[in-house]
UniProtKB/TrEMBL annotation:
InterPro entries: Cation_efflux, Cation_efflux_CTD, Cation_efflux_TM, Cation_efflux_TMD_sf, CDF/SLC30A. The chain crosses the membrane at residues 34-54, 60-80, 101-120, 132-156, 168-193, 199-217. This is Cation transporter. It comes from the Bacteria. Keywords: Ion transport, Membrane, Transmembrane, Transmembrane helix, Transport.
């Protein structure tokens, strides 16, 4: 049975409201989990830094420095999340989601800088190993592994579709790896007294941190530079558009990413003059959303130019054969 216009609009409004409520609930859950991670890491940071200085362990100090970067990243992520949820206005017509991308880029660059410093200190420590207390180092690194494991579980769900949270999530994964490395170093030092292992583990941690941060830098840069998403081939999009009846050519095509899960597309198409434009636009937008995940779509349709005819062909046949009246 056909639905009235009022019923269609009512259903669309209900769907839109449900999507908004779901997005709001997800943002609230994400914020609560980020705050919980911030509190746990803040408490552990103090304990690990004091133990690292007391025991003389460079690996623990390196991990404490990494956690300090995590605390800064969490604070920046919470701030960016708050700004990103603000509605669009006359100046920010797409909203403020790019704040999260900027935060992800800042977090990853800071992480690389800290890891570089840790790596330099580790190389110095390898040349001149210093005495390290293995047992306190083992206890603190074990506690750190537990806390980082909890944080990984808290943020894993949101890391798939939020680049900002993914950056913090990688911080936690790197922390967990640091804790494992510190545990291994503590065991080796406690059992065999090999002090150089502390510097070697710190160097491996630094390399792992840099390796995990580089993809976030690349993805953030691509979004800020408004590159087409890596999983969308503009050639395939153009082929999909021209496959519809009535579309003759794609004159211009722009695809870019506004935020992690928001893709925009703008295109100028040449269509037949007798094509039903409103219906065609609806079909094209639905296909782009389904096949390529676009959320913002702007299509400009222009009619194909008719070929210029010879003046004789444009003239009326009767006018050509009828005799002209002479004055």
């Amino acid at each position: 049975m056909a639905l009235s216009v009022k019923q269609v609009l009512s259903r669309r409004a209900a769907v839109g409201q449900a999507c908004c409520e779901s997005s709001s609930t997800s943002n609230q859950q994400k914020t609560r989990r980020l705050w919980l991670s911030l509190v746990m890491l803040g408490s552990f940071f103090v304990a690990e830094l004091v133990t690292g200085l007391w025991s003389g362990s460079l690996a623990l100090q390196a991990e404490a420095g990494h956690i300090l970067a995590d605390l800064s990243a969490l604070g920046l992520t919470l701030l960016a999340t708050h700004f990103a949820t603000q509605p669009a206005d006359k100046k920010a017509t797409f909203g403020h989601q790019r704040v999260e991308i900027l935060a992800a880029l800042a977090n990853s660059i800071a992480l690389i800088a800290i890891a570089t410093f840790i790596g330099w200190e580790a190389l110095t420590h390898l040349k001149s190993p210093e005495p390290v207390m293995g047992l306190p180092m083992l206890i603190v690194s074990t506690v750190g592994l537990v806390i980082n494991g909890i944080n990984i579980a808290l943020l894993h769900e949101h890391s798939h579709h939020d680049l900002n949270v993914r950056g913090v999530f990688l911080h936690m994964v790197a922390d967990a790896a640091s804790s494992v490395g510190a545990m291994l170093a503590a065991l080796v030092i406690y059992l065999w007294g090999w002090m150089w292992v502390d510097g070697a583990i710190a160097l491996l941690i630094a390399c792992f941190v840099i390796y995990s941060a580089l993809p976030i830098v690349q993805q953030s840069w691509e979004i800020l530079m408004e590159y087409a998403p890596s999983w969308i081939d503009p050639v395939e999009v153009e082929a999909a558009l021209t496959s519809f009846n009535g579309v003759e050519s794609v004159d211009k095509l722009n695809i870019w990413t506004i935020s992690t899960n928001k893709i925009a597309l703008a295109a100028r198409l040449t269509v037949n003059s007798d094509t039903g434009r409103d219906r065609l636009v609806e079909k094209l937008e639905a296909h782009l959303r389904q096949e390529f995940g676009t959320s913002e779509c702007t299509l400009q349709l222009t009619s194909a130019k008719k070929a210029d005819l010879h003046p004789l062909l444009n003239s009326n046949l009767i006018d050509l054969v009828a005799p002209r009246n002479s004055n």
